[in-house]
Amino acid sequence: MAQHTRKGAQFQALTANRLSDGIVVYLTADQRWSETLQEADVAEGKEAADALLARATPFVEQNVVVDPYLFEVSPEDGGIRAVSVRETIRQAGPTVRRDLGKQAELPGVHQ
Q1: pLDDT, tens digit, for every residue of 52-74?
Q2: How far is CA 32 from CA 8, 27, 67, 103, in A?
Q3: In this predicted model, what pLDDT tens digit does every residue of 9-43 receive, in sequence order?
Q4: Is residue 4 part of a domain?
Q5: DSSP-assigned beta bridge partners for residue 73
Q6: N or C: which end of the chain has fewer CB atoms below 10 A?
Q7: What is the number of domains present in the chain?
Q8: C-beta separation of 16 from 65 below 8 A
Q9: CB 67 within 8 A of CB 2
Q10: What are the residue ranges of helices labelled H in 19-109?
Q11: pLDDT single digits (tens) 70-110
């Protein structure tokens, strides 16, 4: 499984694409996949991150998700934020049409 995070990242979450529709999803603490980053389980430290990544294996084997990987997040104002631009874009949707994807639901984005 790929890893898109810098070595030594303190906080990480796990993302993948749901195989049925290609939507970006995040593994939660209660072992389900959410379309919302704020529901993602956050691992602190390398051992916890490795365990989080291992929890995705059965979902890959059952063809629920594809290409799960860890990415760095930052705790912020009672929530979490993706550190990289790549993950910020993945969670919002396509950048070529701001009236589509999750960013279309944000106020003032496609005016």
Answers
A1: 999 999 999 999 999 999 999 99
A2: 26, 6, 16, 23
A3: 799 999 999 999 999 999 999 999 999 999 999 99
A4: no
A5: 82
A6: C
A7: 1
A8: yes
A9: yes
A10: 46-54, 57-61, 85-92
A11: 999 999 888 999 999 899 888 877 666 667 666 677 655 44
